[in-house]
Write a structure and sequence with these properties.
This protein is of the alpha+beta class. It contains eight helices and eight strands. It has an eight-stranded antiparallel beta sheet, with helices on both faces.
C-alpha cells in the first residue's frame, strides 16, 4: 500500500491484537462498518471470515472480510469485499514504541470506484477514514490495557496463535494485485519513504517520546507510507 496512517498507542502490541482477535468488535473500530452478522469460529486464522454490513440505515450493503495473514503481535492482513464498493487489501502493522506501541494501517483498493479514480483523489480520503479508524482502535486497546492493569474482566484474555492455514484463492489474487499496485507506485517515485521504513514513518512520534511528551505522542496521528 502506498498511503497509510500511523498512531502511537499507550498500550502493548498484545492489547491491540487482543482487540483485532475479536471479530465481533469489528464495527466498533472500522469506519463504515455498521453491524456484524456472523464471525467464523476459526477467526482470526488465515482463510476465516467475518460477515458485516457497511453504510448507514436504511441503506446497507452486506460485506465480508477475510484474514490473509495473522502474525501476532506484529501484523494482520485482511481482504475486504463490499459488493459494488469493490475489494481492498488492508494491513495493520504494530511494533513496540517506548512504553506503548506504534500502529500503522494501510489500504490498497483492487477493484471498485477507487480503481477508476486517480490516486491523488482517493488516497487523501482514505487517509482521513483510517485516521479515525486508528483513533477508535486506540480507545479499545488502551481501554483493555487499563482493564488489565486494574485486574478487571477482559472480553478476550488471550491472542490466538498463527494457524497453518491460508486465505482463499480469490483473496490471494487480490493481495497479489495490491502488491503489484504498490510496486508500480513505488517504482514511479511517488512514495515518501523506503518500503518498510517503520522508523522513518514515526520520526515525529519518536522525537515526542524521547522528549517525554508521552501524552501528546500517544494521540498523534500521521500520514505515512508503507506496504500492504
Amino acid at each position: 500500500m502506498t498511503a497509510g496512517n500511523a498512531r502511537v498507542m499507550r498500550c502493548t502490541p498484545d492489547d491491540v491484537f487482543a482487540v483485532l482477535a475479536d471479530g465481533w468488535l469489528y464495527p466498533v473500530w472500522v469506519v463504515g462498518a455498521s453491524r456484524m452478522r456472523a464471525v467464523a469460529p476459526e477467526w482470526p486464522e488465515p482463510g476465516s471470515k467475518i460477515h458485516h454490513s457497511v453504510g448507514a440505515w436504511p441503506i446497507l450493503i452486506d460485506d465480508e472480510t477475510e484474514v490473509v495473514e495473522w502474525s501476532p503481535s506484529r501484523r494482520l492482513r485482511l481482504r475486504a469485499k463490499g459488493g459494488p464498493i469493490g475489494r481492498a487489501v488492508v494491513a495493520i502493522d504494530v511494533r513496540e514504541h517506548g512504553d506503548g506501541c506504534l500502529v500503522r494501517i494501510g489500504e490498497e483498493p483492487v477493484t471498485g470506484p477507487a480503481r477508476l479514480l486517480p490516486r491523488a483523489v482517493w488516497a487523501p480520503l482514505m487517509r482521513l477514514r483510517n485516521r479515525e479508524t486508528l483513533r477508535r482502535l486506540a480507545f479499545l486497546a488502551e481501554g483493555r490495557r487499563l482493564e488489565r492493569q486494574d485486574g478487571g474482566q477482559m472480553a478476550r484474555p488471550h491472542i490466538p496463535e498463527t494457524a497453518d492455514t491460508q486465505a482463499g484463492s480469490e483473496a490471494r489474487d487480490d493481495v497479489a494485485a495490491a502488491d503489484e499496485a504498490h510496486e508500480a507506485v513505488k517504482s514511479s517515485g511517488m512514495t515518501d519513504a523506503p518500503d518498510g521504513d517503520a522508523a522513518g514513518d514515526a520520526t515525529g512520534d519518536d522525537r515526542a517520546a524521547d522528549a517525554g511528551q508521552a501524552d501528546a505522542g500517544a494521540h498523534e496521528d500521521r500520514s505515512v507510507h508503507g506496504a500492504v
